[in-house]
Amino acid sequence: MLKDLYTNQKEQSTVTVYMRQLEQEKIKLARELHDTALQEQVIALRELDALLETPEMANKLELRKKIMRIREQQASSIYLLREFCQTQYAPRLAEGELKSQLQFLLDRLQLRTYLEIDYMNSWPEYALGGERALHVYRIIQELLHNTEKHADARRVKLMLYQDHSYYTLDYSDDGNGMDEIDLSAWSKFGLKGIYSRAECLHANLKFISARQQGFQCILRIPILADYDE
């Protein structure tokens, strides 16, 4: 099934303001979690480590085992919270930084999954910056998240290339796919957020999917569009 989405200029302006506010809220949340909850958990982990090193614990094997289990749970919570903060906080991408940030994003995915990643980026080094780069980064981030959490895929293909007067993003996986891309799927798989960011980019967006035939997203960003940043 193919879904082709577009919007008018007035809607684009409203969506742009909303997406800016959303990014500000994400950054605020990430900072607050990092400076409070994460730091407190790190301190608690250090206190557990110190407790395990005390002479009194040397001969208390059963108690040490219990504390070690608590320590492992604490360390796991710290990792997940730190990962969440890093995901929510993406610094404003200056010109030329998008490629390195995408490579870092893909490297992190590769470390925690068994996905095969086929990645090619032939966009000019300074193709996009600022809000445009951030929107592209967030779109790819959401697509990767969907594949990792929902698609049961083995392979991801991400191609970025310049096509005449467009910068084209072609993303696909070989996962479960969907019979139809409806409103219920928009919320579950974050497609509405991708659509909203495509509006901010003045881009053409297509979703192509079928049951057991994978999922594909094609985004075509006009190179010479009049962006409101």
In short:
This protein has 229 residues and is of the alpha+beta class.
Description:
The chain is of the alpha+beta class and 229 residues long. It is 55% helix and 18% strand. It contains six helices and six strands. Strand 5 (204-209) and strand 6 (215-222) form a beta hairpin. Helix 1 (9-52) packs antiparallel against helix 2 and helix 3 runs parallel beside helix 4. The longest helix has 44 residues, at 9-52. The radius of gyration is 21 Å and the shape is elongated. The two termini are 34 Å apart. Residues 1-7 have low confidence and may be disordered.
Topology:
Blueprint: E1 2-5, H1 9-52, H2 61-88, H3 98-112, E2 116-121, H4 130-151, E3 155-163, E4 166-173, H5 183-188, H6 191-200, E5 204-209, E6 215-222
Helix pairs in contact: 1-2, 1-6, 3-4, 4-6
Label this structure with key terms.
alpha+beta, Heat Shock Protein 90, 6-stranded mixed β-sheet, 18% strand
Average of per-residue pLDDT values: 80
Structural class: alpha+beta
SSE series = EHHHEHEEHHEE
Low-confidence stretches: 1-7
Number of helices: 6
**CATH structural architecture of the largest domain:** 2-Layer Sandwich
What best-fitting shape do the alpha-carbon axes yield? elongated
Radius of gyration: 21 Å
Across the major sheet, the strand order is 1-5-6-4-3-2
Distance between the termini: 34 Å
Query: What is the name of the CATH superfamily of the largest domain?
Result: Histidine kinase-like ATPase, C-terminal domain
Q: Please indicate the count of domains.
A: 2
Reported by name, the CATH topology of the largest domain is Heat Shock Protein 90
**Fraction of residues in helices?**
40-55%
Beta-strand share of residues: 15-25%
